[in-house]
Specification:
Strand content: under 5%
Number of strands: 4
Oligomer: single chain
Number of helices: 27
Distance between the termini: 119 Å
Largest sheet: 2 strands, antiparallel
Shape: elongated
Strand order of the largest sheet: 1-2
Structural class: mainly alpha
């Protein structure tokens, strides 16, 4: 490189420093004296180049959650020195680039409380990511570093292994404040967070391990409720993966968190089955025990209603119906989303369960025998005799036990016949009256 080229390069760099950094100090737009001292030191010794200034700007970005400059000021600085976005923090063990350090909190370097730390830098995520995408920060198609793994996790969460910036954000290691939620919304508005990311990045899995992440979880579930059922982690459904997590206490937190939102958004993940045909409920009983599992289900259902527990238990885990009745006896007479009673579901879909529990059909009241299933429009004896798995023997036994139902049916048919006859007669009378009226009107017109 010639002397002229070197001089011009330095001149260009000095020009950018003059335009982008000096006004920050003079106008007090960036509250970070260490940053300005580093720049001044570099200029005084005369040893400056693109890499060194990028490193100094990166350090300022690492501490942005402390200095809290205006977002527009940050944008101007990183546009002037985009190389800073790829620099890694070497002060600790984090090895993070600036966009990841927005979520990492160094307690040792300052004594500020969580409240004093404010937004922890999350409000700058979109600004750094959008600029980072222009320069392939973190690599190609990594959305400016949002999809890169974060290397620094709190000690209690290191069991989660490698997680990316998105996953770290929804994990909510510093609570569930509105700033994090606003950051998610901002990322979505800028096309940096996509709906499919909720499933592809298993975001509901990571947010479930911190009950304080409720606002973010609800935001994602409201955006894509089906993600509760379609998310798979290591080829397991969401709730199975949470229950099976290697840290049981985190698994319990995740179970309560996920089941709560599945109830609230009417998604049946409790009885979803894995590749071994085992429901999440059965797995929870095995991992956490009956007492703990049923206690929390009862507490969750008390606070937010959801899909009928008893109806779903009957359909998916009939062997546990008595267990549910033990804890949820008050739900026995409730109807499901289609208006069906528990007995009507048994009659139409679980005839084998009725065979094994004869008292359920033997003790049917007259009202129950006469009531038609709102879905099939069939009475109990007819319901068990319909479909590919019809049980004519059971149908006959129900009729034999309650023969009076035939009298009711015949009586209803007779009443229906009389009603139809009267309706037909009224229609005929009306027709005759209309015909006579037209004849009179024609006669009057002729006269």
């Amino acid at each position: 490189m010639s002397v002229r080229e070197t001089a011009e390069k330095h001149k260009s760099l000095l020009s950018r420093i003059e335009e982008a950094i000096i006004p920050l100090q003079e106008q007090k737009l960036w509250n970070d004296d260490k940053f300005f001292k580093e720049v001044n030191k570099m200029l005084m010794c005369g040893k400056f180049n693109e890499g060194r200034i990028a490193s100094i700007v990166a350090r300022a970005l690492f501490d942005i959650k402390i200095s809290q400059p205006d977002i527009e000021v940050v944008k101007k600085l990183i546009k002037a020195f985009p190389g800073a976005l790829n620099c890694k923090d070497r002060r600790g063990t984090s090895d993070c680039i600036p966009i990841q350090m927005l979520l990492v909190y160094y307690i040792k370097e300052n004594k500020k409380s969580d409240e004093e730390m404010g937004c922890f830098g999350t409000s700058y995520l979109s600004a750094l990511a959008l600029e980072g995408m222009k320069h392939n920060v973190g690599g190609a198609n990594m959305r400016g570093g949002l999809l890169n793994n974060v290397h620094e996790l709190p000690k209690e969460l290191r069991c989660l292994g490698k997680i990316n910036t998105f996953q770290y954000l929804v994990l909510g290691t510093h609570g569930d404040n509105d700033n994090d939620l606003n950051a998610l919304k901002d990322l979505r508005r800028n096309g940096l967070l996509l709906r499919e990311d909720i499933v592809n990045q298993s975001l509901l899995f990571y947010s479930s391990f911190n009950v304080k992440s409720g606002k973010k979880t609800e935001y994602m579930v409201s955006w894509d409720p089906a993600a509760l059922c379609t998310t798979r982690v290591n080829n397991s459904p969401l709730l199975h993966a949470i229950i099976n997590y290697k840290e049981p206490e985190l698994g319990k937190v995740g179970f309560v968190h996920s089941v709560y939102y599945s109830f609230k958004y009417k998604r049946n993940i409790l009885f979803q089955k894995d590749n071994d045909d085992k429901t999440a409920f059965k797995l929870a009983l095995e991992k956490f025990g009956e007492e703990w599992t049923m206690y929390w289900l009862k507490l969750i259902f008390k606070n937010v209603s959801g899909p009928s527990l008893l109806h779903n238990a009957l359909l998916h885990e009939p062997q546990f119906l008595n267990l549910f009745l033990k804890y949820f006896a008050d739900l026995y007479h409730l109807r499901d989303e289609e208006g069906r009673t528990l007995t009507q579901v048994m009659l139409s879909k679980k005839r084998d369960y009725l065979e094994e529990n004869a008292m359920l059909w033997m003790n049917l009241s007259t009202d129950q025998l006469e009531e038609k299933d709102p879905h099939t429009t069939l009475r109990p004896f007819a319901a068990v005799a319909s479909g590919d798995d019809a049980n004519l023997d059971l149908s006959f036994r129900i009729l034999r036990k309650h023969p009076s139902i035939m009298e009711v049916i015949l009586e209803q048919r007779e009443k229906m016949a009389i009603k139809m006859k009267n309706k037909k007669r009224k229609a005929q009378v009306g027709f005759e009256e209309c015909r006579k009226k037209k004849i009179r009107e024609a006669a009057e017109t002729t006269a």
